[in-house]
Specification:
The chain is an alpha+beta fold. The chain contains four helices and four strands. It has a four-stranded antiparallel beta sheet with strand order 2-3-1-4. A hairpin with a 4-residue loop joins strand 2 and strand 3. The protein is elongated, with a radius of gyration of 20 Å.
C-alpha cells in the first residue's frame, strides 16, 4: 500500500455542508475517500485532453437498429479500429433500440475520433465516451491477443 500523506483543507461552512451531503449521497466511507474519488476523476478528465496519452475508456451507444445498415456501419468502424476495441457488449433495450457498450484502449485522441465517428452515424441516438483511468497505460498492454503465448497482465 502506498504511503498515506495527511493534509488539511480550509472550507467555508456551507461548502463543507454540501461536501458532507455529497459524501453521504455517494456512500463514501469517509471524507478522504470522497476527496480521493474527486481527485482521480479530475486527473482522468485532465489526462483525456492529452491526445497522445494512452488511456482506457468506455463508449456507450444507443441506436435504432432499424436504420439502414446501422449495425454494418458500427461493426465496420469497430473493425477498422480493432487495435483500440478491446471488447463489446450488445443489449436489446426494446423493439427498436439497442445499446452497445464498447471497452477501448489507445491514444485519447484516437479514441475520441472513433467515438465521434460512431456517434455521428445516422440512427445513433446517444454516444457517451468516458475515460476510465487516471494514469497512462503502458503501450505494451495495448495489443490484442491473437497469438498463442500467455501474458502475466
Amino acid at each position: 500500500m502506498p504511503d498515506i500523506v495527511r493534509f488539511s483543507v480550509s472550507l467555508e461552512n456551507d461548502l463543507l455542508g454540501q461536501f458532507d451531503s455529497f459524501c453521504t449521497e455517494g456512500k463514501f466511507a469517509t471524507r478522504s475517500e470522497a476527496v480521493r474519488h474527486l481527485i482521480r476523476e479530475k486527473l482522468v478528465s485532465t489526462q483525456s485532453t492529452d491526445k497522445n496519452s494512452h488511456v482506457a475508456a468506455s463508449l456507450t451507444l444507443v441506436y435504432d437498429h432499424h436504420k439502414t445498415k446501422i449495425t454494418d456501419k458500427l461493426l465496420d468502424l469497430q473493425h477498422a479500429h480493432s487495435e483500440s476495441v478491446v471488447s463489446t457488449m450488445h443489449v436489446h433495450l426494446d423493439d427498436d433500440l439497442c445499446m452497445e457498450l464498447i471497452a477501448l484502449r489507445g491514444h485519447a485522441g484516437e479514441l475520441q475520433n472513433l467515438a465521434d465517428a460512431l456517434g455521428g452515424l445516422k440512427g445513433v441516438h446517444h454516444a457517451k465516451l468516458v475515460f476510465a483511468c487516471s494514469q497512462s497505460i503502458s503501450p505494451l498492454h495495448l495489443h490484442s491477443h491473437p497469438h498463442p503465448h500467455k501474458h502475466t497482465h
